[in-house]
């Protein structure tokens, strides 16, 4: 089995809140803990800065970024609701590039490996892989760049408890994947929107928000139907 990289190991520590939000990151401590030199640690922190998980201040080194607040959480989901339901509909249209079978495989593999609960980092990795596969299948590089810039999973899953009952997320993923596989674009679009709304409501209590608060955008479509 391939050993996780220094980047992966530090990222997991941040997602699991082993390095708390707003806490100074000690390079020397990470060197001792991970048994590596300073160079790979510094390279990992540079990449994590690009992910928005750490920030660097001149003369003060690195510290972890604060957790999302309610306004940031809602804003992130508003952006996702603009692009992801549309993406789910688009990839359902062409049987030759339809990613439905691969998406169903991702869900089944994760469910088999995590029958009850899973760590936040494991679910974050699955969620990233699932949504990224849909965006990649659109062939739209601008959409991919916009989504990657959000680093949504890395930020969101810092809000979860360590042991996550993943059944709801996986069921929603499975329903989206089934609709895409069946080339049911309208249904895939509606299910993706519902999945994102439900996901936001699952995260809201972690930031002191109420699921019955401000309304979400009325549409997840950024382009008109063909």
From TrEMBL:
Gene3D superfamilies in the cross-refs: GntR ligand-binding domain-like, Winged helix-like DNA-binding domain superfamily/Winged helix DNA-binding domain
Assigned keywords, A-Z: DNA-binding, Transcription, Transcription regulation
Family matches, as InterPro entries: GntR_C, TF_FadR/GntR_C, Tscrpt_reg_HTH_GntR, WH-like_DNA-bd_sf, WH_DNA-bd_sf
Every HTH gntR-type domain range: 1-67
Entry-linked Pfam families: FCD (PF07729), GntR (PF00392)
SUPFAM superfamilies (UniProt xref): GntR ligand-binding domain-like, Winged helix' DNA-binding domain
Family annotation (PROSITE patterns): HTH_GNTR
Lineage top rank: taxon: Bacteria
Region Disordered, annotated ranges: 206-226
CDD domains noted in UniProt: WHTH_GntR (cd07377)
Annotated protein name in UniProt: GntR family transcriptional regulator
Naturally occurring in which organism (per UniProt): Brevibacterium salitolerans
């Amino acid at each position: 089995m391939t050993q996780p990289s220094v980047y992966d190991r530090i990222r997991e520590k941040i997602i699991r809140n082993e390095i708390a939000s707003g806490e100074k990151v000690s390079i020397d401590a990470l060197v001792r803990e991970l048994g590596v030199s300073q160079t790979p640690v510094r390279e990992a922190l540079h990449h994590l800065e690009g992910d928005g998980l750490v920030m660097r201040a001149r003369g003060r080194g690195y510290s972890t970024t604060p957790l999302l607040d309610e306004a940031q959480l809602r804003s992130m989901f508003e952006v996702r609701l603009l692009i992801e339901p549309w993406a789910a509909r688009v990839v359902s249209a062409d049987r030759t590039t339809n990613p439905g079978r691969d998406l169903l495989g991702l869900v089944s593999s994760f469910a088999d490996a995590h029958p009850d609960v899973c760590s936040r980092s494991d679910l974050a990795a699955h969620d990233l892989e699932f949504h990224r596969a849909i965006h990649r299948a659109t062939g739209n590089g601008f959409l991919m760049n916009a989504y990657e810039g959000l680093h949504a999973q890395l930020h969101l899953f810092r809000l979860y408890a360590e042991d996550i009952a993943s059944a709801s997320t996986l069921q929603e993923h499975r329903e989206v994947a089934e609709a895409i596989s069946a080339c049911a674009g309208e249904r895939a679009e509606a299910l993706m929107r519902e999945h994102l709304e439900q996901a936001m409501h699952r995260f809201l209590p972690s930031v002191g928000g109420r699921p019955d608060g401000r309304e979400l955008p009325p549409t997840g479509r950024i382009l008109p139907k063909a």
